[in-house]
Design goal:
Elements (H helix, E strand, L loop, with lengths): L4 E5 L2 E9 L3 E5 L10 H7 L4 E5 L17 H14 L6 E6 H11 L7 E7 L8 H14 L3 H13 L8 H8 L5 H12 L4 H4 L12 E6 L7 H10 L4 E5 L6 H4 L1 H15 L1
Parallel strand pairs: 3-4, 3-5, 5-6, 6-7, 7-8
Antiparallel strand pairs: 1-2, 2-4
Length: 272
């Protein structure tokens, strides 16, 4: 399943796709990923659901215009509008990494109606962001001008650190490819430079207002967003459940695909 359709939103090109039949499920990626990370799961879920994949502007096959902001606030507005464009009244949302904050903002701040939320190793509570994030924010223009081979090494090392089990070369190549063009290099550092905890800080007081079923899924060995965030998130959201996946890091889709697919299938069956 690939994002083979496009639509225009505020001058941005948004790549997306839809497959299957049944209750609607929208899969939201994070950073520095794209919908490709969710594609195998989307294909499996499309047997019983109508599954929507999309790339946030600045990522994957969507536009990477340097003049367009790519912050979490903007992406949350876009997601809320996308659900309306697609005619989805109460879809199920499954979100990873940044996609968590984007989904929560779409629902809590922009009124997007949902049937349920499944939050997988998400950015939702401060603090988040690494020393590398802070360094890029301070020197984004310098990183944008790195020689291509040096930039490639930076991106590969950064992405590899999200896996607990280690990545196959073909997976590493697929995850780094969107960032290795001239436009991709600039976009990679631009989205880090625009990362700001204020976009999750204004969410945290509203988490107690969530009135839809919520399931939190986390890799026990997540070095990017440690497991304590999952426990904090569950305490903050009324009635939220928690599944911890052993021997998996932040890239749980690649570290433990069978366990993640099982968790997603079980969750969606329970809220159908």
């Amino acid at each position: 399943m690939q994002v083979d359709r496009t639509l225009s939103w505020r001058g941005r090109r948004v790549a997306w796709s839809c497959a299957g039949s049944g209750p609607a499920v929208v899969l939201c990626h994070g950073t520095p990923w794209s919908s490709a990370l969710w594609a195998p799961f989307a294909e499996a879920l499309s047997r019983d659901h109508t599954v929507y994949l999309w790339d946030m502007p600045g990522y994957g096959a969507s536009s990477m215009d340097p003049e367009h902001p790519v912050d979490l606030g903007l992406q949350g507005e876009l997601l809320a509008d996308l659900l309306g464009i697609w005619g989805l009244e109460r879809p199920h949302l499954v979100a990873h990494d940044y996609g968590g904050a984007v989904s929560l903002r779409a629902h809590l701040l922009h009124g997007a109606p949902l049937a349920s939320l499944c939050l997988v190793d998400v950015v939702a509570l401060s603090p988040w962001g690494s020393d590398f994030f802070r360094l890029v924010r301070e020197h984004a223009d310098v990183f944008t001008r790195l020689p291509a081979p040096v930039h490639r090494g930076v991106v590969e090392s950064y992405i590899a650190g999200a896996s607990h089990r280690g990545l196959r070369q073909e997976d590493l190549d697929a995850l780094t490819a969107p960032w290795l063009t001239t436009a991709g290099q600039a976009a990679f550092y631009r989205q880090i430079a625009q990362a700001d905890e204020r976009f999750t800080d204004d969410l945290e007081p509203r988490l107690g207002d969530l009135a839809v079923p919520v399931q939190v899924v986390w890799g026990r060995e997540d070095a990017w967003i440690p497991l304590d965030r999952a426990h904090r998130l569950v305490r903050a959201i009324p009635g939220a459940g928690l599944s911890v996946v052993d021997d998996a890091g932040h890239l749980i889709q690649l570290d433990a695909p069978v366990m993640l697919a099982t968790e997603l299938g079980r969750w969606l069956a329970s809220v159908r």
